[in-house]
Amino acid sequence: MRFTSLIIELIRARPRLMFWLVVSAQALLWLVVPLLVYASPPEGVATVLAYGREYQVGSDLGPPLAFWLADIAFRAAGGHIVGVYILAQLCFIVTFYALFQLARSMVGPQHAVIAVLLTATITAFAEPGVAFGPLVLARPLWALVLWHSWEIIGRGRRSAWFALSIEVGLLLLTTVAAPALLLLPIGFALATARSRRALMSFDPLFGLLVIAVLVLPYGIWLVRADIFALPPLPASTELGDRAILAAELFGGLLVALGGVALLALLNTRFDRGSDDAPVVYRAPVDPLARQFVYVFALAPALLGCIAAGLFGLSHVLGGAGIALLLVGLAVVMATGDLIRLRRQRVLRTAWAALVAAPAVAVILAAVVQPWASPTERATSLPASDIARFFGESFERRTGRPLPAVAGDPELAGLIAMGRSRPHLFLDAAPARTPWVTPATFSERGGLVVWRAADTAGKPPPEIAQRFPDIVPELPRAFERMIAGRQPPLRIGWAIVRPKASP
């Protein structure tokens, strides 16, 4: 008698339920893990909150939408970082929902769930998805853009134009990579006669009007800031290093796909005997849908790595989550109309292990690394203790809430998350934080912090040069959640007292 597991029966009979079980479980996993082992938010999140607190139309970090949403989520959670973690997982859920809807319209709900299961093993959607910022917010918007683009191009649904125009506008307000990314669906729409027919109406004009309204304030800021220029092209002597960078980024994408490759290998048939594995069927796929999936599974990754290498970026253009979004669906589409699920118990165990492995790695790194290495993790700093101590110290000394904090950018960003939400002042590059100038910092007062190398707490030369009148206080030592071999975190500090009001 042939055995069929409950999971396969759910895939075949209740694909929507299976989708929600898988996505909800993974979102819950990456909500709980940071709350358990992160003493401070991932690298860059404190800066996102500091910029979002100002509600600027634009900044040197790019369009404003991700920063605004991060601050709203942080305030809605009562000033707790859990609000930002929840926002990050909402982005994950919306991304996979749009992927499921896109896949369902092409290959049916059963194969769509299999595509979601494969995509869930891609490590780009695991720990990196916790660090909310423009790259994380761009993922659901890109997935929605692809879904509604296919609704228009492949299914002729004119009603999707309004949703698509809003999603394109929001994507433009999220990442500087949006214009380059949007060239891909535009190019695909113009490449075939069938897709060109979908553009022959007034709907695209109305869509452009909606996009223009959404991005107009940011466009005005770009014009005034005069930062339209692309990053400089590399010199001929740098081409070799840039090519290596592009190859390394592409290699990182391949590593992130290791789970997909492993599951495909485990499901491969190696003998020629009878095959009685359970089968998941689908109707024949539209040839245009096949082209759509293959193009958007390959082009963002290849072109994103080339662009990142050309301009010297530290990540794939648009982020790995965008580059690898349709790989699982592409694998399902290439498999054929019948997918036989062999070695059911092995597949089930391997999938669960692949999904849980990144979370286990994060927990082990948080617990073991302090004992095995003196290297500090960004998430090991006691953020709440640091922000509370310095905020209360300034208020006790001056009788006023802490208005701004400067010095070490990492420490200053953590203090800026405190109860009074002081402004972040990047004194080494004041133009990056135009909401505070050296003159206003000197007039209103604030706090200057740095990492102290000893108990004397002497400021580094560059900070002493920018703030020649500060009087250092005794350094404050903070214990990490797990100290291990790492010494206590010593923070030197000095108060810049506000000038008396006339």
Automatic annotation (TrEMBL):
InterPro entries: RgtA/B/C-like. It comes from the Bacteria. The chain crosses the membrane at residues 20-39, 77-100, 112-137, 168-193, 205-223, 243-266, 292-313, 319-339, 351-372. Keywords: Membrane, Transmembrane, Transmembrane helix. Pfam families: PMT_2. Residues 63-221 form the Glycosyltransferase RgtA/B/C/D-like domain. This is Glycosyltransferase RgtA/B/C/D-like domain-containing protein. It comes from Rhodopseudomonas palustris (strain HaA2).
